[in-house]
Amino acid sequence: MKNALICTALFLAACSKPAPTDHATPETKAETIKLYALECGRIDMLDLGIFASNGAYDGQTYKAVSSCYLIRHPKGDLLWDTGLPDALNAVDGGVTNGPFHIAVPHTLLGQLADLGVTPDNLDYLSLSHSHFDHAGNGGMYAKATLIVNEAEIAHMFRDEARKDMQTFPAYSALEASEKITFSGEHDVFGDGSVTIIDTSGHTPGHTVLRLELANTGTVLLTGDLYHLNKARELRTVPVFNTDEAETLRSMDKFEALAKETNAKVIIQHSTQDFEALPKPPEYLD
Ligand SMILES: [Zn+2]
C-alpha cells in the first residue's frame, strides 16, 4: 500500500507539468473531473477576535461564506462539506447564533438538484470536519458512502458530541452510513485525482481536499485550516481549535504541499475566494 502511494505521488509529480495531449489514459481521465462551487450559507462573523489566539483580529468583523463543493469524477460524484442547514432557508434574514449571524439564501438540496444530484443518487460524501457549518445537512446524505478521517468519526460520535442538540441531529443519521475511514490520507477514486488529507488541529480529524484538474492543475480546498485569507499569512489559530500546536504543524504540511504543487488554494469561508470561482452550471476543470 505504501508503495502504491509513493507511485501515485511520483506519477502526480510527473503529470503536474503541461503534457502533450497524445497520452491516452491518465490525462483523458483527468480532463473529465469537474469542480462545482456551491453556496451553502452566509456567515457574518460578528467577533473576529475568536479566530486568533494572539488577538490579531480583536474588534474586527467579517462577512464570510459557507461553501460546499461537488466533485464530478468519471467514477462518481463526491460532495465535500454540506454547509449550514437548509432548514435556515425558511428563516427570512437568518438568525443570530452567538458571535455569528447565519443565513441560507439557497439550499444545498436545490443546487445539487440543478446538477442532477439527489440524496438518493449521491455516491460519496466527505466532511472536512464535523462543525455545524460543514455538517449542517450531513444527515440528508446518509445513503452516500461517507469518507471521513477516523479521528473525526470518533470525535463526531463521542458522548459529548451527542449532547450537542444544535449540531448532532444535523448529521446523526450518518452513523448508519456505509463508511470508508482512514488515517493520513485517502485517494477517493484510486487514481490520485481526488485525495482527502489529514490536517488535524481545528478538530481532531480535520481534513483538506486535494484535486488534480486537467486545466487548473492542483487545487486545495482548505476546510477550516484557515478561515480568512490573511490567516494564511499571519498563521493565526482560532481560540476554539482543539490543538494549536497540531494546527501549526498541519499548516506547515499544507503550505509545503501548496508550494510543491503550485496549487490554487481555496479558503472555503473566504468570500473573495468563493466569488472568484465559476458558479454552476459553470465549473472548474
Ligand atoms: Zn467553518
Question: How is this structure best described in words?
Answer:
This protein has an eight-stranded mixed beta sheet with strand order 4-5-1-2-3-6-7-8. It has a five-stranded mixed beta sheet with strand order 9-10-11-12-13, with helices on one face. The longest helix is centred in the C-terminal third of the chain and has 18 residues. Strand 10 and strand 11 form a beta hairpin. It is globular and about 45 Å long. It has a single domain, classed as Metallo-beta-lactamase, Chain A. It contains nine helices and 13 strands. It is an alpha/beta fold. The structure holds zinc ion. Zinc ion binds next to loops.
In terms of DSSP E residues, the strand content is: 15-25%
Biggest sheet details: 8 strands, mixed
Structural class: alpha/beta
Rg to the nearest angstrom?
18 Å
DSSP summary: helix tally:
9
What fold name stands as the CATH topology?
Metallo-beta-lactamase, Chain A
- Could you tell me the number of beta strands? 13
Any low-confidence stretches, pLDDT <50, length ≥5? 1-30
The total tally of domains equals 1
Reading the helices and strands in chain order gives HHEEEEEHEEHHHEEEEEHHEH
**So, CATH architecture?**
4-Layer Sandwich
Order of neighbouring strands in the sheet with most strands: 4-5-1-2-3-6-7-8
Average of per-residue pLDDT values: 91
Q: What shape does the CA trace take? A: globular
The portion of residues assigned to helices is: 25-40%
- In angstroms, what separates the terminal alpha carbons? 29 Å
Bound compounds: zinc ion
> Looking at this structure, what is the CATH superfamily?
Ribonuclease Z/Hydroxyacylglutathione hydrolase-like
* CATH domain class: Alpha Beta
